[in-house]
Specification:
307 residues, six-stranded mixed β-sheet, 29% helix
């Protein structure tokens, strides 16, 4: 081998070592983002003053969604209000073109055939246990939990698994079938029941719950999901702020109202592994073009730390 060839081989070897070291460092942490995309699906829309049937999310909104996600650089992306597998692949392809490859996906198909929850991940998805057929009773009426509960376990590294739940509680929009606030309370109790069963089976589960809960932290659905403070099964809400210190995640433009509807709840075990100074709300001028929600992000140390 010539001197030049040896030099090239040495340089290539050093480069590969640096890449391997970077990959190992990344595998020691996982960045999770939860995001309500605001109808990333085909639906009837008003476009340029005209009603269009079965139209996809407009391109300028999609571009803004991609920009918001790329700004957060998640390893695992939990989505609310996405449609079909085709919509998931579309977003996946756009993110990859932007340098963010999330090859592993799962889509939760519950009663709502339009708006679903999904997960995209850089890491393999070990297994799923989506809750798609949950119901509850209001008076004489049996009601479906329309969006159900996404349930996926991600293998961040061989020694660390992250179990992720995702949900989307009933909106505040009034419907004739039942009281919307009461519906959210029932749905919240179903989420809590599922989380309790997981933690009862293994209290050391690294459990993360994301979603659009359509209520503020003082309301009963949020309290029901968290459980009783001080118990082993209590779910902690990660404190999240944007770079100006604001905590709102949702804007109802009609009322000029800003609220925190999007949360990241974690089990006691996972709380020890949350990196607080790398947990935040993504702020960007394009946020309201992308959605009426802002993404929430947390970074997790992928080690089973002692409580």
């Amino acid at each position: 081998m010539s001197r030049r060839a040896r030099a090239i081989a040495l340089l290539l070897g050093l480069t590969l070592l640096r890449v391997s070291a970077q990959d190992a460092a990344i595998a020691d942490q996982a960045v999770f983002m939860g995001y309500n995309l605001k109808n990333y699906l085909k639906m009837d829309r008003r476009i340029n003053g005209e009603q269009v049937v079965d139209a996809p999310k407009p391109e300028h909104e999609v571009a803004a969604v991609v920009q918001m996600i790329l700004k957060g650089q998640p390893d695992i992306l939990g989505l609310v209000e996405i449609g079909t597998e085709e919509d998931v692949r579309d977003l996946q392809t756009r993110l990859k073109a932007g340098g963010l490859d999330l090859p592993h996906t799962t889509l939760n198909r519950a009663f709502d055939e339009d708006r679903r929850t999904a997960l995209l991940s850089r890491f393999p998805i070990k297994e799923t246990d989506h809750q798609t057929a949950l119901t509850y009773q209001i008076g004489e009426t049996k009601m479906p939990f329309k969006r159900g509960i996404l349930d996926a376990t991600v293998t961040v590294n061989p020694d660390y698994h992250l179990r992720i739940l995702g949900t989307h509680l009933k909106s505040k929009r009034e419907i004739p079938e039942a009281d919307q606030a009461l519906m959210r309370r029932h749905e919240a109790h179903l989420v809590r029941k599922h989380a309790e069963a997981i933690l009862a089976a293994d209290p050391e589960t690294n459990l993360l719950l994301f979603g659009d809960f359509n209520d503020t932290r003082n309301e009963m659905p949020i309290k029901a999901i968290q459980g009783k403070y001080g118990t082993d099964g209590y779910l902690w809400a990660i404190k999240l702020e944007d770079d100006l210190g604001y905590t709102w995640t949702y804007n109802w433009r009609y009322a000029d109202q800003y609220s925190r509807f999007d949360y990241l709840f974690v089990s006691p075990q996972l709380l020890t592994e949350v990196i607080r100074d790398k947990s935040f709300i993504v702020a960007d001028p394009s946020w309201d073009t992308a959605s009426d929600h802002r993404p929430v992000v947390t970074t997790i140390t992928a080690k089973n730390l002692k409580r």
